[in-house]
Amino acid sequence: MKNISLLAALVLFAACQENTKKREPITVNYPTTKKVDTVDNYFGTEVPDPYRWLEDDRSEETEAWVKEQNAVTFGYLDKIPFREDLKNRLEKLWNYEKVGSPFKEGDYTYYYKNNGLQNQYVVYREKEGGEEEVFLDPNTFSEDGTTSLMGLSFTKDGSKAAYLISEGGSDWRKGIVIDAASKEIVEDTLVDIKFSGISWKGNDGFFYSSYDKPEGSELSAKTDQHKLYYHKLGTPQSEDKIIFGGTPEEKHRYVGGSVSEDQKYLFISASVSTSGNKLFMMDLSQDNPELVTILDDTDSDTYVIDNEGSTLYLVTNREAPNKKVVVVDAANPTPDNWKDLIPETENVLTAGTGGGYFFTEYMVDAISKVLQYDYEGNLVREVKLPGVGSAGGFGGKKEDKEFYFSFTNYNTPSSLYKYNVETGEYEQYWKPQIDFNPDDYESKQVFYNSKDGTKVPMIITYKKGTELNGKNPTILYGYGGFNVSLTPSFSIVNAVWMEQGGVYAVPNLRGGGEYGKKWHIAGTKLQKQNVFDDFIAAAEYLIDNKYTSKEYLAIRGGSNGGLLVGATMTQRPDLMQVALPAVGVMDMLRYHTFTAGAGWAYDYGTSEDSEEMFEYIKGYSPVHNVMEGTAYPATLVTTGDHDDRVVPAHSFKFAAELQEKQAGEQPTLIRIETNAGHGAGTPVSKTIEQYADIFGFTFYNMGYDELPNQAVIKEFKD
């Protein structure tokens, strides 16, 4: 067992920080983490795995380890003097009404709403001219708010609905069918649904996807054969028919089914990884529909966006890395018959439909631009957005004459706008009443050069008048993977950070989708190091341009972004003061052996692919690159004990390695949320507590004894 004294306020900080006071050191007594003799052999190279036992999420030993680690972590966090102030400020700022875009189903208009601090959003509805009523309140699903609503789907006439719930943050869902008018449950609950939506076929039943329940732990055991089922109402789930995925020839890790708006076709997507899919269809107007192949390879991301009779409209990046819209007849739907409708441009396309039009959102350096087209591919208009930022929700049913879209950026809370599809005019429908003034803050987009000279964009947001003196507490947030694009959006927790004089910086790293497929590919497999280099270069830009300095820089990311933080802090521990890896993929040699992790191989490759790939992955895998005798930054690893997407063993092993090998005086702690998963559906109360701890830990380890902006704290206390 190690005893490490943390001198959280170093003399160095006192010289450059007026509000820093000398304080008593906090002693951290880490629990002893048992080591075992497990060794794996990869292409003749033996790799020890001393903490393999922590992968058993069902063992009493692991449970005891979690309790011991949390006791140490919360014992440390309890001593941070302004932790409660942060929690109170988060609660106050969070406490405003939030409303989702309305949508029409049958005779009702539905919408999600949260009155402020409710753990879960409530689904309301109203008839035209009628009064608002609660349709579904997930806050009543469990006493502690950890059971969440994770999907809601109506029949075409709106008479029935099915919804999915998650318990404790798990990706395994339960499905419940109700009569929409009476809200009464009409049949037994479906179980063991995973990575699935619900798509109705008339009023008779619906399609959904799942895996066979694995042997061993349902939270960590491997799942790799996804199946599409049809559930007929009034029959037991055990009789549900497998539509696709039940044979060795149809084996895929991800399978999904979607019924066209006119109920004529079922479209089936099948993938072996998170990128690239095959595409099939069935004509539901036939008694015994045959499976028709649209696309029989996984070389592209392709899906059907709409149809008019037998005319299909598809979005694809096949021979178009930035995506395009193509048209084809269902009688001959293969790629050799596709015709371009909305051609590829230099910017990445995301397409939706509504009111009989296509709406294409383009990312221009991660900023939204929206165009409206008719079904002949003619440009109708550009939608002039309310500002520079991110627009979302451009879409609706074919008969809709109006729908709603949202607009936000890093310093502007999301507002809703009602859009007229014929005139292109819109008006503000809802604006949040929040205790935060966006006019006090500014966002600036910069471009910097990565290690290999690649130009990378980054948006930096902070309070107007911030002095660039190298002393501003700064969070550098990144993701860089899976074709995911980080576009500007408002966050309550980031608002609290910026209120305290904090800088929030988000670079658009390679591996993401901001510049299309080529940008994504440039951060995958044997090019994954580009992502870390981009992130490191972003940190260096912020330091070189005096936004911050090493002593005031924190790096943060979750999931694949947790890997980003883990790799960056082990490669450049000298670059930052604080590291905040959340639910990260940390054991890159074994990630593919858990749950659906093998599906991430498109981005990562696996340690079994080849000796070259093994050596490359081992070279950056965070668990395998914590070195004895190295001074690592103050680190708060966060995870959930029910995370069945990136299993918590990743974080457990990484924390154990850090605690064993840390040579510096900075703390290396792990905060394990109980009865929580990968993040989706986490109750508001738990989220507020998490960020009070994360920001408290960050400020404290930057040398602060009190929050930088005490005026805000005093104001809301008064």
Automatic annotation (TrEMBL):
<comment type="similarity">
    <text>Belongs to the peptidase S9A family.</text>
</comment>
<feature type="domain" description="Peptidase S9 prolyl oligopeptidase catalytic">
    <location>
        <begin position="488"/>
        <end position="701"/>
    </location>
</feature>
<dbReference type="InterPro" id="IPR029058">
    <property type="entry name" value="AB_hydrolase_fold"/>
</dbReference>
<keyword id="KW-0645">Protease</keyword>
<keyword id="KW-0720">Serine protease</keyword>
<dbReference type="InterPro" id="IPR002470">
    <property type="entry name" value="Peptidase_S9A"/>
</dbReference>
<dbReference type="InterPro" id="IPR002471">
    <property type="entry name" value="Pept_S9_AS"/>
</dbReference>
<dbReference type="InterPro" id="IPR051167">
    <property type="entry name" value="Prolyl_oligopep/macrocyclase"/>
</dbReference>
<keyword id="KW-0378">Hydrolase</keyword>
<dbReference type="InterPro" id="IPR023302">
    <property type="entry name" value="Pept_S9A_N"/>
</dbReference>
<protein>
    <recommendedName>
        <fullName>prolyl oligopeptidase</fullName>
        <ecNumber>3.4.21.26</ecNumber>
    </recommendedName>
</protein>
<dbReference type="Pfam" id="PF00326">
    <property type="entry name" value="Peptidase_S9"/>
</dbReference>
<dbReference type="InterPro" id="IPR001375">
    <property type="entry name" value="Peptidase_S9_cat"/>
</dbReference>
<feature type="domain" description="Peptidase S9A N-terminal">
    <location>
        <begin position="31"/>
        <end position="429"/>
    </location>
</feature>
<dbReference type="Pfam" id="PF02897">
    <property type="entry name" value="Peptidase_S9_N"/>
</dbReference>
